[in-house]
Structure formats: structure tokens, C-alpha cells
Design goal:
295 residues, alpha/beta, Arc Repressor Mutant, subunit A, D-Maltodextrin-Binding Protein, domain 2, five-stranded mixed beta sheet, four-stranded mixed beta sheet, 9 helices, 11 strands, rod-shaped
Length: 295
């Protein structure tokens, strides 16, 4: 099989249907004599005559008939494999997998609507990603882009539009002494243990799960969690508190926990992130739609 050109096989199959070198060449858009040259090349490769050129019409030799019987099904299978791969590739390029740590709302939902309206053949598939390591799904190709809680470090990732900049909030049980306060200071965080996100990058944990206050007071940590719902359930049971982005507060839908703004900490923000070098055509389109939604 090594060295055989697909064009030679196609020429042989078409000639078997047409029984005429000229018509076979026309169907394949070959120059005059091109079909005959391809057939000679194929015969040289297989080592035996495939066609009889002695009559007015070209006919297959007995060896050619056997070759046709074996080649036809194999060629159709190969063509189906190539066509199927092309269809899957086209479908993949029309679908953008967007990783979210919650539901699509606000500017993200607006950007998705604009993305799909601009190209009705395109769709955004929402993929739920964990708090524990949202960047793994990007690096391993499980999603094409993701909306994550910043900061992001790593030259392999691109940070696009940033949004939802708000004070961070300490999440405590609704009956906790801090729950009724309109705001707490960063030093108050030493009064309740934090429930950190397990396996998150160190640079991210330093911002969202600090271990010491600015004045040097220790912030105790409980066992980590992988998902937001796990953490909120622990908080509601009185097992600790979580430090979350301000935007998360509006989508929890729970009355057994309270979100209290924290002063003295950097504000939280969300961002659209994708792998550097991504060739998915939908990524820059979605980024532009999100930028427009933020104006």
C-alpha cells in the first residue's frame, strides 16, 4: 500500500464505471492523457495489467476485476471515515464548549445570545467545571473557554474580558454572629475557620483562601471541598465559612447562609479565559460579544 496515490485508485474506480479513458479523465478533471498515465502508474505499483486497452472500449483484465472487487468496499469504507471525520470537525468548530462554575447569567448569558444570533449554525455548550481546578479543563482540552474567578497565572492561558468586579464576601451560616453585620473587616476572618477549595493553584488560594490576616492573625482552615455546593452545605451546618466572589452571592438561592462583604481585601472579578494558541474560531467571537455586553 505504501506509495499508492488515492488519485490513482479513484481513476481506476471511475474507469471501471465508464469503460472509456476520455470520459474518466473528464469526470476527474484531468488533462488529456491524464487518466491513462494514472492507470499506468497504478499498474506499475501492483505489478500487473489492470485494464485491456486493445479494443475501442477499455475493459478490465481478469486481474483488474479481482482488484476492483477488493478495492471497491475498502475505498468506500475509507471515504466514509474521511467524510465522518470532516463532519465531526465541522460540528466541533460550530460548537463552543464553555466552562462555567455556575449558571450562565448577566453579561455571560447576553454574550451567549449574541454569539448564537450572529451565526445560527453555532452553539455554546455549557460544561460545568469545579471550583477545585477550573484551569485543568482548559489545559486538557475539555472546554474551549471558561468563565473563572480570577486571578489566573500561566503563559499557556489567555485572560480575555474581565467583569463583575465586587467586594469579596464571607459566607457564614445565617445564625452566625457575623451574619447580621452589614460588613466585616479582614481581621474578623480570624474568628471563623475557612473552608478552602481543594487542589486549587497556590496563587489563587492566596487571594481567596488566605491563612493569615494583614495584622498577622492566623486564619484556620477546615477540610477542603471540590464544589461550591459542598462548601455551602458545610457553611450552612456551621462547620466554617467561605470567601467567595461577590457575584456568587446573587445566585446561591439559599436562606440558610449569609454573604457579608469584607473590607480590606482585593475585589473579586470574573474573566473569560482560553488556552493560548487556540484555533477555535468561536473563541474570539464570544470574547467580542462579552466585551460588548459589558459596555
Amino acid at each position: 500500500m505504501r506509495g499508492i496515490e488515492i488519485r490513482e485508485l479513484e481513476c481506476f474506480l471511475v474507469l471501471a464505471e465508464e469503460s472509456h479513458l476520455g470520459r474518466a479523465g473528464e469526470r476527474l478533471s484531468l488533462p488529456q492523457g491524464g487518466a491513462d498515465r494514472l492507470l499506468h502508474s497504478l499498474e506499475d505499483r501492483v505489478g500487473a495489467p489492470l485494464v485491456d486497452r486493445s479494443g475501442l472500449r477499455v475493459s478490465l483484465t481478469p486481474f483488474g476485476e479481482e482488484f476492483l472487487a477488493a478495492l471497491g468496499p475498502a475505498y468506500r469504507t475509507l471515504a466514509a471515515v474521511v467524510d465522518g471525520a470532516r463532519d465531526r470537525s465541522r460540528d466541533a468548530r460550530q460548537r463552543l464548549r464553555l466552562g462555567l462554575q455556575g449558571s450562565a447569567s448577566g453579561p455571560v448569558a447576553a454574550a451567549i445570545r449574541v454569539f448564537e444570533e450572529r451565526d445560527p449554525a453555532s452553539r455554546v455548550d455549557i460544561v460545568e467545571i469545579t471550583l477545585s481546578d477550573p484551569f485543568r479543563t482548559l489545559r486538557e482540552g475539555e472546554v474551549d473557554a471558561a468563565v473563572v474567578l480570577l486571578p489566573v497565572r500561566g503563559r499557556d492561558l489567555v485572560v480575555g474580558p474581565e467583569f463583575s468586579r465586587q467586594p469579596q464576601r464571607l459566607v457564614v451560616a445565617s445564625d452566625h454572629p457575623l451574619a447580621s453585620r452589614p460588613r466585616v473587616g479582614v481581621e474578623d476572618m480570624a474568628r471563623v475557620p475557612l473552608v478552602p477549595v481543594r487542589n486549587a493553584p497556590d496563587h489563587w488560594l492566596r487571594v481567596h483562601s488566605p491563612t493569615v490576616t494583614p495584622l498577622g492573625r492566623t486564619i484556620r482552615h477546615e477540610a477542603g471541598v471540590d464544589t461550591l455546593q459542598q462548601g455551602l452545605s458545610l457553611v450552612a451546618s456551621g462547620s466554617g465559612a467561605m470567601l467567595l466572589a461577590g457575584s456568587t452571592a446573587w445566585h446561591s438561592g439559599r436562606d440558610d447562609i449569609a454573604f457579608v462583604p469584607v473590607s480590606g481585601l482585593p475585589e473579586s472579578s470574573m474573566g473569560l479565559v482560553w488556552p493560548r494558541g487556540s484555533t477555535h474560531p468561536g473563541v474570539p467571537v464570544l470574547a467580542a460579544a462579552l466585551s460588548e455586553a459589558l459596555v
